[in-house]
Model the fold of this input.
Amino acid sequence: MLSEKTGVERGDGRFPKGFVLRLFAYIVAGHLVAGFLYLLFSVGAQ
Done:
């Protein structure tokens, strides 16, 4: 039997490590896509 239930706060008040890494990756990827689209539109407008 598991000692920790899923979804229950662990008590240290921090996010799980995997969640933080995934969030960071999504933020970086989102900024890269946004920068690429900005580059496409700025080059296409000339």
